[in-house]
Amino acid sequence: MRGVFITFEGIEGAGKSTISEMASRYVASKGLRVVGTYEPGDTAAGREIRTILLDPAHEGMHPLTELLLYFADRAEHVHRLIRPALDRGEVVLCDRFTDSTVAYQGFGRGLDLKTLRDIDAVARDGVWPELTILLDIDARAGLKRNSRAGKRDRLEMEDTGFHERVREGFLSIARSEPERVKVVDASRPVDAVFAEVRELMDRVLPDGRA
Ligand code: TMP
To answer: Measured from the CA of 151, which atom of ligand 1 is nearest?
Structure first.
């Protein structure tokens, strides 16, 4: 795997999609080949898995079913899209990866972290980000941003307590892996957030043609 793998993480409304799109444009502007992708759902099978996962009709889905569906999506994503791109030497920017599973299914749903990490290792099969940008925002502020954007899927319908546990989960991962996971205050205007993100990416990106 010759490429660079960078992930973006955070709770709902932290601005991940906006920032990761800006990041893709930035990497391309450096003359590097970039793949912008996300979980769950950026493969043909993954799109169907995402529909099941986020459908409010499955409100009572068992947490273990939910966990295994996220892993099914990841296995497909890693093998069909992420690893082939890394093998071609490309920069892969991924909106959510393993840390989301630890934060949402581990800290949010209370599933056993050791079991979760063991199955995750099978699903991702050695692929691991060299940099993770955690866009951090207060849970209430994030949910408010999302409701203004009209978003309301099955996970967004969870109460504020759930999203607070998820945020704490992300922060706890960042405390235990400070080299990989960089916390960026996402409550600021988007340009300020992106300026910090760009600096962090520059530390792991090759120079490119520019
Ligand atoms: P998003 O694409 O709008 O971020 O929605 C994906 C939802 O899936 C979001 O609520 C976070 C959740 N999620 C998990 O619960 N576990 C995971 O492993 C991943 C990748 C996402």
So the answer is: 3
